[in-house]
Amino acid sequence: MARTTHRSSKAKKLYAKRDKEGKFEDIQTYKRAHGADLRKKGTKSDAAKKKSAKKSKSKVRAKK
Fold this sequence. Notes:
The chain has one helix and three strands. The chain is of the alpha+beta class.
């Protein structure tokens, strides 16, 4: 997904996503798009941490 940056009339930074024909498909503010990207990237690492935590807890319970 390639995004191009623009500025709004209020000077806010915008991300614009275009389709194959070059028409605008989605326009978001940088703040919203960046926050969504961080949440999306964070879920993978959080899921891995949760899995490792569950495995370590189950091993401790088995030893007792």
